[in-house]
Fold this protein.
Amino acid sequence: MAKWGGTCHKGNKLYVHVFEWPKEGLAFDPLPNKVLSAPHPDRRAGHFVQSDAELSVQVADADRAAPVTVIELTLDTPIETGKMVGNVHAPLKK
């Protein structure tokens, strides 16, 4: 697991587990799936922006949980079992 956290998936759900939010934000390489929603399990909304270049995810400081914030991304199609997707990187400058 990376210092910031990690991910896992099942079916059309991609779970992002964040232990330490990077100062510059959290972004992933483009996903082959379209993200439909990104709530936490407690149903507070996370914010995401998906483009051809990346998927960025953000949760307001007040909505982050300790010791870990979990964001459940609902995708339009399932991720194939055993497939790795979405390497993490610093968000692209806009």
Remarks:
- The chain has a mean pLDDT of 83.
- The longest strand covers residues 69-75.
- The beta strands are 5-10, 13-18, 26-28, 35-37, 47-50, 55-58, 69-75, 88-89.
- The chain has one domain: 5-78.
